[in-house]
Design goal:
Layout (H helix, E strand, L loop, with lengths): L1 H16 L7 H8 L4 H25 L1 H21 L8 H30 L10
Helix pairs in contact: 1-3, 1-5, 2-3, 3-4, 3-5, 4-5
Amino acid sequence: MGFVIRWVFAFLLLVATYNPTEWNYVRWSMANYETSLSLTVLFGLILFVGYIIYLRATLRSIGVFGMILILAVVGTILWVLFDQGFISLDDPSVNTWIGIVALSIVLAVGLSWSIVRRRLSGQTDVDDIDE
């Protein structure tokens, strides 16, 4: 259940930043930066903090190679789904949603990897040791 929660927050972070609808930070800030510059900067910084948390944890846990590997696995799954006729890539907005889901999976795996590794190996992280 912890992975699902991490994935939902990663998905919401990406969707809040950009999605094919009009309800996202990028479109809102482009339309309102002249009249609401302070809010634009505040919301941008809040999103930036979210990205720093996710990206730093992901880079520390799985690294760039791990991120590429997870993207390759997700991309191959999408390829299989396309090849078997389960999804169509004709609609650009659907492609954007697929990209958002793929990136959110990478961020969620990165944030959850330490927990997964600990459960698989039985080893304890330095943060888990009580003094």
